[in-house]
Amino acid sequence: MANWQYRIIKHDDQEPAYFAIHEVYYTKGGHVEGWTEDPCRFGGDSKAEVLDALSLAYVDGKNKPTLILSKLERDHDRWYRCAWRWLVWQMVEATVKIEQITGLG
Q1: Confidence grade of residue 94 (pLDDT, cut at 50, 70, 90)
Q2: Could you give the CA distance from residue 30 to residue 40 in angstroms, rounded to a whole number?
Q3: What kind and span of H or E run contains 83?
Q4: For the chain, domain boundaries
Q5: Which of 4, 33, 52, 102 has the fewest CB atoms within 10 Å, counting from its CB?
Q6: Is residue 15 predicted with pLDDT exceeding 70?
């Protein structure tokens, strides 16, 4: 995983919907790779650590758009299906090249 940010996620899968702060992880290409299942719980070895984490969460949450859980799940699934198809295609192409080089094809 390339990097992460605190993000506010709207949990629209429940009634009534609610908002919570999660850690969201990104690929190097900027696609959402995953997020924490449970909302963040802020703790640390000192008061300063807790306040630093809360401050970072506040800045990230304020400056970035709110993510919608149902859209995140849909886009995440779509992105991984495309990535999987691309990987399979690369493996097929590599197999064909190996067969051509070795004469086993």
Answers
A1: confident
A2: 21
A3: helix 69-102
A4: 3-102
A5: 102
A6: yes
Residue type, 8: I
Answer whether 27's CB lies under 8 Å from 2's CB: yes
| 58 three-state secondary structure | helix
Beta carbons within 8 Å of 4's beta carbon, 6+ residues apart: 23, 24, 25, 26
Q: At 87, is the pLDDT very low, low, confident or very high (cuts 50, 70, 90)?
A: low
CA dihedral for 26, 32, 38, 42, sign (positive or negative):
positive
Q: 52 is written with which tokens? A: 């630093």
CB–CB of 57/21 below 8 Å? yes
Q: What is the dihedral of CA 21, 26, 31, 35, to 10 degrees?
A: -40
* 8 A C-beta contact, residue 4 and residue 11: no
Task: Give the Cα separation of 72 and 11 in Å (integer).
Answer: 10
